[in-house]
Design goal:
Blueprint (H helix, E strand, L loop, with lengths): L17 E10 L2 E11 L4 E5 L6 H9 L6 E6 L9 H4 L2 E4 L11 H9 L8 H7 L15 H13 L5 E5 L7 H18 L2 E6 L2 H7 L2 E6 L2 E6 L1 H9 L2 E6 L5 E6 L2 H12 L7 E3 L3 H12 L11 E3 L2 E3 L1
Parallel strand pairs: 3-7, 3-8, 5-6, 6-7
Antiparallel strand pairs: 1-2, 1-4, 8-9, 10-11, 10-12, 13-14
Helix pairs in contact: 5-6
Length: 314
């Protein structure tokens, strides 16, 4: 599966909030990003999906202005992040992978303190209600559960009314209930508050649940990009046909036309075909296959020549 070029904005759609073209990043002799292209539009939840080491955090740090890229062009809120000043940074909210500070502050006090850094902050009490922490206002930050701490991180990230919110692996280590509550919060921010969200995750189910569009980042390259439905349709375009040949060996082939392949097999065999099975891959299958290929593993499919009336089908 190859990534399509990012769609051009329609007349009804403004320029992307985030636009990246040909972005590269190298550390010494190791290249981490290989010509990355991204468009993120205002008001959408965009997921950057990939395994650990795919380059997600590096990408986000470049977009946030915390890391200087090796090459390419980047615009975030109409500004190159490498030259973004305080006013630009005030339009962006950050929720990093983890925090290890502020443990002795009380939740409400910390939020009020952060609010003083912005010209038009949200009301801290209302923000605690929004993220579901009203009952923890007097509690020390260090005594919060993991899920509560992440909700506080979001509150700190949006107290300045950002237009764009970065969430870097926000639910790592969550139990199912905490994950669900966090997902509901992110959906509310996007749908009711109009915040544009860029989410990085290695969890396909999380990306499908939250994102309007998903970019699959594997080995520093965007391998596919589209809505969950578009990616699912593309994944299902090729099916795997499995069968047992006359010599007793297992055969399999991938094809866009499984019905035609099965018909060719029946014509060639002139009888029942042992072990015949047609399997359409899920989006998860396709994602895992991309990751497996990047790790140097086999595809998991064996190409086989199939006799047809006019020759062979592979």
């Amino acid at each position: 599966m190859t990534a399509p070029a990012p769609p051009a904005p329609s007349a009804a759609r403004a320029e992307p909030v985030i636009r990246a073209r040909g972005v590269t990043m190298a550390y010494g002799g190791t290249t981490v990003l290989h010509g990355l292209d991204l468009d993120v539009h205002r008001g959408e939840v965009f997921a950057l999906l990939g395994p650990n080491g795919a380059g997600k955090t590096t990408t986000v740090e470049i977009l946030e202005g915390f890391r200087r890229r090796s090459g390419g062009e980047v615009s975030v809120l109409d500004t190159d992040p490498e030259r973004g000043g305080d006013a630009w940074r005030g339009r962006i909210g950050l929720v990093l992978q983890s925090w290890r500070d502020h443990g002795r502050w009380r939740v409400a006090e910390l939020l009020k303190h952060f609010a003083t850094y912005y010209p038009d902050p949200r009301d801290p009490a209302g923000l605690l209600a929004l993220v579901g922490l009203t009952g923890q206002g007097d509690q020390q930050v260090g005594r919060l559960s993991g899920g509560q701490r992440r909700r506080l991180d979001v509150a700190l990230g949006i107290v300045g009314r950002p237009e764009l919110l970065f969430l870097d692996e926000p639910t790592t280590g969550f139990d199912p209930r905490a994950r669900h509550e966090f997902h509901v919060l992110v959906e509310r921010l996007a749908r009711e508050e109009g915040v544009t969200v860029l989410l990085t995750t290695h969890d396909l189910m999380e990306a499908e649940r939250l994102a309007d569009r998903i970019a699959m980042l594997v080995g520093g390259r965007v391998r596919a990009c589209g809505t969950p439905a578009e990616l699912a349709r593309r994944a299902a375009a090729q099916a795997e046909v499995r069968w047992t040949a006359e010599d007793g060996t297992f055969r399999s082939a991938r094809t866009d036309d499984p019905s035609g392949l099965v018909w060719d097999l029946h014509r060639a065999a002139r009888g029942p075909i042992p072990g015949l099975e047609v399997r359409r891959p899920t989006l998860e299958d396709t994602y895992l296959r991309m990751v497996h290929r990047q790790d140097g593993g086999a595809d998991g499919f064996t190409a086989a020549s199939v006799p047809t009336a006019g020759g062979t089908r592979t």
